[in-house]
Design a protein that fits this description.
It is a single chain. The longest helix has 11 residues. Strands 1-12-11-3-7-9-10-2 form an 8-stranded mixed beta sheet. The protein has a two-stranded parallel sheet with strand order 4-8. Strands 5-6 form a two-stranded antiparallel ribbon. The protein is globular, with a radius of gyration of 13 Å. Helix 1 runs parallel beside helix 2. The two termini are 15 Å apart. The protein is an alpha/beta fold. The chain is 18% helix and 32% strand. The protein has one domain: Phosphohistidine domain (Glucose Oxidase, domain 1). Strand 5 and strand 6 form a beta hairpin.
Length: 139
């Protein structure tokens, strides 16, 4: 076990265990019109992650914005094989909750520390949603 490992505890939204490199944004993400569901790329031109793909990453973000099409757009990423490996978010809405459920991606929220302050893009993150545990190894 690394001395640099950070452990946070939170609430399981969707069960499962996954790990990978973090892709972090403090901004909300728009589903319909904000992502390309066939590549997992954020296409919203004013978004700080515009042009970056969350495929095979642990997506850490504030929450969802936009219409109820958010969940449909993220569901399409799963069907296309471009969904994130796991999801961590900080602002619960019905849009984001439904989106992670239809993606079937391990997901936690309501962590005891703000994930947007603790996790940085490039960190290695393990999400054990079954137990509500997030382990972070800083890059």
């Amino acid at each position: 076990m690394s001395a640099d490992k950070i452990i946070m505890r939170g609430r399981k939204i969707v069960g499962g265990v996954a790990e990978g490199e973090a892709l972090v944004t403090s901004q909300t993400i728009s589903g319909w019109g904000g992502i390309d569901p066939m590549t997992g790329t954020i296409i919203e031109t004013r978004h700080e992650l515009c042009g970056q793909s969350f495929k095979d990453k642990v997506l850490v973000f504030r929450g969802a914005k936009g219409s109820s099409g958010w969940s449909a757009a993220f569901h399409q990423t799963r069907l296309a094989g471009c969904a994130p490996k796991a999801v961590i978010f900080s602002e619960m809405t019905t849009k984001v909750a439904l989106g992670v459920v239809v993606m079937r991606t391990p997901c936690v929220s309501e962590l005891d520390d703000d994930p947007l302050e603790v996790i940085a893009t490039g960190d290695w993150v393990k999400v054990d949603a079954d137990n509500g545990i997030v382990e972070v190894i800083p890059k």
